[in-house]
Specification:
By secondary structure, this protein is of the alpha/beta class. It has a single domain, classed as Rossmann fold. It contains 6 helices and 13 strands. It is globular and about 45 Å long.
């Protein structure tokens, strides 16, 4: 069973529908025991970094997320769920993130004539095809909605990036932790393949 963490962030239902479409059993929950006993855990979300951390703390989920990761359960962060894995964000100065991935979240540049927030499709530069991007074509377009981007301290964990005035780290893999800034559940066939790859790694759907 896949536990989708409910902390009042947006876009959770879309993730649930995508997992079910791929024949994965899932449940939206904030119950600690249910999350810790799950075969895989997804932290989705659309919203502000500071408010999200406040809700995770309010629902006593911060420690639960860290425990899930430390015990080796396959874990996927999506959009805001990726950003929260980092140490801090320029969006919410003084607020500590989960600190699972070293680095910070920065504001997309607003002085280069680019649209911010970045809403729409962008092509990925894939650096590692062994996890989320296994068996994907060379040029993959996925759907973004973001005003901030991750900047990982250790670039060896970065599996995909985009160029949007800056080099943005948009996917990371570190042990049992996977995360992407874009929305696989809204990225058509390629996005479903990425989500399917995670579910196969977690053995939540059969491998082909």
């Amino acid at each position: 069973m896949v536990a989708i963490i409910d902390y009042d962030a947006g876009n959770i239902n879309s993730v649930e529908k995508a997992v079910r479409y791929l024949n994965g059993e899932c449940r939206i929950t904030r119950d600690k025991a249910e999350i810790l006993s799950a075969d895989a855990v997804i932290l989705p979300g659309v919203g502000a970094f500071g408010e999200a951390m406040e809700r995770l703390n309010e629902y006593d989920l911060t420690g639960t997320v860290k425990e899930v990761i430390s015990k080796g359960t396959p874990f996927l962060g999506i959009c805001l769920g990726l950003q929260l894995l980092f140490e801090k964000s320029e969006e919410s100065p003084g607020v500590s993130g989960l600190g699972v991935i070293k680095g910070s979240v920065k504001r997309l540049p607003r002085d280069l004539g680019l649209k911010v927030p970045d809403i729409g499709w962008n092509s990925l530069r894939i650096y590692n095809r062994n996890g989320l991007f296994k068996d994907l074509e060379d040029e993959v377009f996925v759907y973004f909605v973001h005003s901030y981007y991750a900047d990982a301290e250790d670039k060896s964990v970065v599996t995909a990036g985009i160029d949007y005035g800056v080099r943005a780290d948009v996917a990371v893999e570190a042990g049992n932790v996977y995360a992407c800034q874009f929305h696989p559940e809204k990225s058509s066939k390629a996005g479903l393949k990425i989500l399917s790859n995670f579910l196969k790694v977690a053995e939540c759907i059969p491998k082909e």
